[in-house]
Amino acid sequence: MGIRFILMVNKQGQTRLAQYYEYLTLEERRALEGEIIRKCLARNEQQCSFVEHRNYKIVYRRYASLFFLVGVDNEENELAILEFIHLLVETMDRHFGNVCELDIMFHLEKAHFMLEEMVMNGCIVETSKTNILAPIQLMDKAS
Amino acid sequence: MGSQGGFGQSKEFLDLVKSIGEARSKSEEDRIVLHEIEMLKRRINEPDIPKRKMKEYIIRLVYIEMLGHDASFGYIHAVKMTHDDSLLLKRTGYLAVTLFLNEDHDLIILIVNTIQKDLKSDNYLVVCAALNAVCKLINEETIPAVIQQVVELLGHPKEGVRKKAVMALHSFYQRSPSSVNHLVSHFRKKLCDNDPGVMGATLCPLYDLITIDVNLYKDLVVSFVNILKQVAERRLPKSYDYHQTPAPFIQIKLLKILAILGSGDKKSSEQMYTVIGDIMRKSDTTSNIGNAILYECICCISSIQPSPKLLETAADSIAKFLKSDSHNLKYMGIDALGRLIRISPDIAEPHQLAVIDCLEDPDDTLKRKTFELLYKMTKSSNVEVIVDRMIDYMISINDSHYKTETASRCVELAEQFAPSNHWFIQTMNKVFQHAGDLVNPKVAHNLMRLIAEGFGEDDESADSQLRSSAVESYLKIVDEPKLPSAFLQVICWVLGEYGTADGKYSASYISGKLCDVAEAHSSDDIVKAYAVTALMKVYCFEKAAGRKFNLLPECQSLLEELFASHSSDLQQRAYEFQAILDLDSNSIDNIMPLDASCEDIEIDKNLSFLDSYVHKSLEEGAEPYIPESQRSGTLTVTNHTNQTYDTSAHSLRFEAYEVPKPVVPIRTPPITDLVPVSVSLPEPSYHQPVQVQPTRSPDPSSTELRLRLDGVQKKWGKPTYSSSATSSSTSTFDSNGVTVNIPKQHDNVVPKSRESRHVEVSEEKQKLAASLFGGSTSRSEKKQPSKARPTTTTTTMAAAAVVAQPPPDLLDLGEASGGGGGGGYSSVVDPFQQLEGLLDVSSSSTTSTNGHNQNLNLLLSEKDDFTPVNGSPNPTTKTPTLTKGPSLKDALDKDALVRQMGVNPTSQNPNLFSDLLS
């Protein structure tokens, strides 16, 4: 299992989306998210987009005020994960059009649906934007 | 944001999201969420809530949990929503359930039925939603309920369903490999699915399976290589492209798989060479994703059977990574370097400066990665610099996780490569001082053993110098506040054992220090125990040596305090000490022989020395020993307490805890053969065990005498009465105490380090000229600044020097650097000087540089020569060759310089090096 969790946290440290691929209790999640975002905020643009935290490696990317954070284990290719984040953002962008923090907040479930298509069991399973968005568009039409 | 409210979201929901979004602080957010919880608790249970409204409530529950609050009151509604007919509501319900519940939650059982139904649905999107839920919610026990349906879905006409079915099986495999053992062939089949999405997903379970057992999948190498080739040739649909790169994530996964399959398998590896070479040639080095693929190729190349051509390509890519301005690429480069260095150790040479740059970088991630690289390339020639650096880093960080990791790496490297015992001790001191509570306690024992055993080269004077320098360094450190317990234990033990050995410090001085330790750490019983035992040893050594030595008043008061200690161990030690005070020097010498910690102690577990007594007793009509198994347990308790009394009573005695005081005096005099008998005489029925024991060795040596208590206790006390305070305290005394423990556990570490040093040195002599730091980057860079600079250009130059120089020079060089590397040697000769150097690095380094003005000049001139090379960020392999001609002379000069530098012990000044870089 490569990916352990995917988080979106804004720079005030408020979680906007959280998807875990292993079970953590509410308290553990809360603590983890706080610690990670604090670490990432302390870093500047020039520094690596990778941070080690406990047993995780965190790959993060910042878009405006929103941090996308992916926790991976040791075997993962960090650079690829970094691009995976961008793929996720591009996908959301295609769906929402100029995606912003509020889009994710108002359509939390859709953001999750996209993730469900892209990542299963902590593995990247789909990277074609067309395939990722197809079911979501179908659902939109149906409702 | 045009889509805002697109699902007909209510104003209420919009307001909630808005207020959460506008919350300025965590507490404000918490307040909003708590209010929301209150409201939802009331509203969600109302009857006849419209479905859309309910969906909104569910999303609000998701928010509550996401923001760190408990929403379990609404879980059941999410479960209910999975029953809904509307696809959107159903999927939202499944989503909420997967977010709320872990696979072992009680509510799962309510969902399994729904999942089963949905898996049969005609609407493939419903099936997909159910399969998503299967991946997250079906645990080992419920797998059988759905596995058959999932397998059937592998043949579903819709590719999306097939893909998710594969992943559902994958999740079963993750949870319980045995549940899908018979289905592995399906994964193989799905690899050939028409749809690239299904094929790509199938790589995930296959990767896991191949990791477990490579050999079962060797036949797939051809398939994987073919797929990879097709992907790289853009045969997949355009929609898989990412930034003009064809299906990069699939490529990366395939490369990971090939790396495992080709590892140690020449035939398989050869099949991969072409495609890997092609991909590396094609990949776009200007984009992140192109570099991600390149990196994965390097990982693959370093894992499979090496191909010289590919290794070269990989080295080129690494060079580009390291030269990049992007920290991300540098990070990947350092990591890749660490992988490749195992195969071609020379690869680091051109990148010395880049590596040092990364090491000096304020970016902690990069720094840590670089330490990982250094850790991988540590050898005896560079261990000092690397470990010093690591220790500095260890001191500078607060995160206990990484502190522990770094500390244990320091210890590991030091144990493995230590150039001298002296250096080892100094290094361990630092590690202990700053992370003593984080390292494995075994390390402390190793350290004590090393000090006790010394070099093991039969060089007594070197050993004693080592010890006195250890004592010296501990005396300096011991007064510092907040020393970790493990370190204090080592200090106490060493001070007790060797504090007065060289006569430099008086017994009262050492005792004073030990009393201070016990007082300053009055809450730490173990440290106190070590201190008391050490005090006892100091006293004994004095007395045995025939010197008059009166117990210090503070020592006396410490003892009195310990007589009343809550810890029976401490009490025991105090009483034993007290008892020893009354003995004559002859018996003391027998109890506490000087520097006997390494002596093997024979433990006569069978108490054979009691044989004659037992015989006698039996003849006089005593009852024979009844083995434990044959008697009732209650009896035994009393006996044990009796044992120490020299009463003749055969009756049971019940007084506990009177044991320690009389014990020692009685026992210690028995240096004569008769005594052992008399000691045990008091015991009526219980010394008989002796008889039962089969083996007997007749001569109790003096060491045995000391241990006799131990043997007796264990034999009689432990099985019957192990919980008793006395027995446990005595046994701990023996094991913690002075002598027993350390000699007992003989580890290989020390001998190993010694061996490795020998080997390395001779190897070095050959290698050193050719590659001054051949792969050992940091060492020369930091340690001998003068050498460091040249290094960019060195390797080839040095090689030239070798050719030019006759063999003797080569040897000189080797020796010189060997001396430099083993700063310990010179310091062993004069420990004080070494210590000064340790404590005041800068001063020693300045003196050394002052001592060699000429060299300084040389250094400067060299700097001038080479700055351009350094300045250009890309010291490629070509640069050295360019400078090769003119540098021959430099190489000779450097050679001389190195020799001189080598004479001076550790003069590493990190600042010097950073000057060079600027």
List keywords for this structure.
heterodimer, A: 143 residues, alpha+beta, Beta-Lactamase, 5-stranded antiparallel beta sheet, two-stranded antiparallel ribbon, 5 helices, 7 strands, 26% strand, B: 918 residues, mainly alpha, 68% helix, extended, disordered N terminus, disordered C terminus
Description:
The complex is a heterodimer of chains A (143) and B (918). Chain A is of the alpha+beta class. Chain A has a single domain, classed as 2-Layer Sandwich (Beta-Lactamase). Chain A has 5 helices and 7 strands; from the N terminus they run E-E-H-E-E-E-H-H-H-E-E-H. A 5-stranded antiparallel beta sheet of chain A has the order 2-1-5-4-3, with helices on both faces. Chain A has a two-stranded antiparallel sheet with strand order 6-7. In chain A, helix 4 crosses helix 5 (129-142). The termini of chain A are far apart. The mean pLDDT of chain A is 93. Chain B is built from 50 helices and no strands. The two termini of chain B are 50 Å apart. In chain B, helix 9 packs parallel to helix 11 (196-212) and helix 21 packs antiparallel against helix 22 (421-435). Chain B is extended. Chain B is mainly α. At the A-B interface, strand 2, helix 1, strand 3, helix 2 and helix 3 of A face helix 1, helix 3, helix 5, helix 7 and helix 9 of B.
Shape of chain B: extended
Please indicate the percent range of residues of chain B in DSSP E strands (runs of 2 or more).
under 5%
Rounded Rg of chain A = 15 Å
Strand numbers in spatial order across the main sheet of chain A: 2-1-5-4-3
Structural class of the helices, strands and pairings of chain A?
Answer: alpha+beta
Question: How many β-strand runs of chain B?
Answer: 0
Helical content band of chain A: 40-55%
Quaternary structure type: heterodimer
Residue runs with pLDDT of under 50 for 5 or more positions of chain B: 1-6, 638-649, 662-832, 834-887, 894-918
The count of β-strands of chain A is: 7
CATH architecture of chain A: 2-Layer Sandwich
